[in-house]
Each structure stands twice: as C-alpha cells, then as structure tokens.
Amino acid sequence: MSIYRCNSCGFIAEVVPIDGSATHCGRCAKPVTVYGTVFFIERILQRYAESLREVKKLKDTLANFDQQSGSDGEPRSTATKDNSPEAAALDHTFLPTEEQHFPLHLWFKSRQFDVRFQYDNVDLSGYFDEAANQIVEHEHLLADVIGKIGWSYRKNHSGINIDLNKMAQKDVGAITKICRSWYDGALLSKYFYQKNEKVLRLGLQTATPARLFFTGGWLEWFALSTVLKLQDTFQKTPISVARGAKVQFPNEDLFELDVVALFEKQLFVIECKSGEFRSEINRLSRLQKRLGLDGRFFVICSPQLDEAQAKSMTAMYGISFVNLQMLAPHIQRTLAAG
C-alpha cells in the first residue's frame, strides 16, 4: 500500500497505486501525488525533528535575551532558570495536540493498525504528573497510603483514616505535607490531621479522574513523565507520546496501550501494572508479537518487582520487566544499543 496527503484539504488516505503515481483526493477530488508509506513516514519524522530543533533554537535565543535584559530594556544583574513544575508544564503545551500524536498515527497506520488517541491524556497542565512523581519519590512512605486509598475506592468508601502513631515524626511530616498538597490540587475532597492523636483523615474525591489516578493511573503518569524527561538526553531525536492509545488490529481485536513513545522510528510500549499481573503475562506476550516489537521495546513496569525478579522474568518470557527505578535506565540503554 501507498499513501498520500492532499495539499488542498489535508486529507490522508492509503491507496493501491505505486509510489510516484498520481491520483485524486478522496475528499476534494484535487490531484495528489502518491508516496510509499515508509518514505512518507521518514519525511514526516524528518520535518518533525527539524521543527523541534527550530523551536528549541528559538527558545534558547529568547532565554538568552531574557537573561540579558528585563522587560524595561535594562540589563539583569542575575538570571536563574525556572525549574518549577509550572515552567515544565509550559514547555509541554504542545503535547495534547494532533500534531504531536501524528508520527505515532503514521507508525500504526503503516502496519495496517487503526489507532485512536485522546489527546488530553498527555495534558501536563494538571496536577497528575506531579503527584505521580511524589508517589515514586516517597515510595517507601506512601505505599501503604496509596494501597488504602485504592482499596477504599474499590469498596466505594468516601474516606479513610490513617493511623500515623508508629511512624517517626520526620515521616509523619512528609506524609501530611504530601497529602495536604493532594488536597490543594483537588485530588482529595477533604484533608484533616488530628495532631494529638496522630490520625490523618482523608476524603476521597468522587470525580472519575481522581479515582482512576489512585487505582493505578498514577503509574501511567509516572511512565509518561519518565519518557518526557529523556528528551534532555536525546535532544536530536524527535519523540511522539500518547497515553491510553486504543489500537485495533485487522481482525478487529481492540487493545488499550498504557503509554507509547516513538523515538524517531522506534516505538516503545510501556504497560503499567500497579497490582498483581502475573496472570496477564501470556496475553501481554501475544500483544508484543502482534505489534511486531522486539521484546526490549515492550516493557512491563511494576513497583512490586525487585531488580532480581525483573531480570529473571525478562529472561524467562522475552519481554522487558522493570520496576520504577529501572524504567529510565532500561529505555536509555535500549536506545543507545540501537
């Protein structure tokens, strides 16, 4: 099969004519040129990479100008880079767009797979990615809290009480600070800490996004955040990402992929398993083969695994098992190895 994109109306379609021939747009009937699918994708990715480099160059130029002069034209005495979450979110405003997802669309289309994206699934303007990174950063402190919140959601409870009496004061301070930030960010509906009794009372948010986050979605946000942080390492490699992509195979089987990331031409699929997943290994292995991916690029991320377990299961099943700490190094090593 070959592919064309109409310059008049932007319509994209696959056609039978060979590469280099002419046909007419299926939407507006204007003449169009047909290209081989692989050639078309390569050209799109090349332009995408060039555009990202141009954007980075413009940002660097503006940053240098901002360092040298203020809004009133007077020189600045000092300048520091804003590494706040708010500044990072501004850099990612292009993520929930059709253009950002388009290279992924072409990758699946070239393999005769239909794919649907919900662009808002990678919108970093909310609080989910920050909260996910808090959970991972303080994994040893928050594992019990996250477990109880998830259990309470599954039992349709409206809130939980957490006894902190047996914890060190330093850990109590860290947990209450994080839970307070979740309340401030509207992930929780209520927050109250009874200092004398050392009991933390949390009200569960009934909104579906919060429920999904605490029942496993936080791991998807962490995986997405991990992939995006690798952009600093692979600046010359264009990255297209999606969360919750729905892929339909030619026989109409439908699968939802937790996180997908296209590094130039190489696709990574990251399946996030916050709970028990061993009964799903066979299904996941079949999915990896149907996608045509080398096992190195099909990753099962689970916080329940230690490093020895992850390496053992990788050797046994031919797909990649990692825990939270192993995810970024695995992607880096795999991309570097080619």
Number of helices: 10
Could you say which structural class the secondary elements and strand pairing correspond to? alpha+beta
Instruction: Report the sheet with the most strands, covering strand number, pairing sense and barrel closure.
Output: 6 strands, mixed
Question: Cα-atom Rg, whole angstroms?
Answer: 23 Å
Tell me what the CATH architecture of the largest domain is.
Answer: 3-Layer(aba) Sandwich
The CATH topology of the largest domain is: Trna Endonuclease, Chain: A, domain 1
Question: How many angstroms does the end-to-end distance come to?
Answer: 27 Å
**Count of the domains:** 3
**Mean pLDDT reading:** 85
Q: Into which percent range does the helicity of residues fall?
A: 40-55%
Oligomer: single chain
* N-to-C order of helices and strands: EEEEEHHHEHHEHEEHEEEHEHEH
- CATH classification class of the largest domain: Alpha Beta
Strand order of the largest sheet: 6-10-11-12-13-14
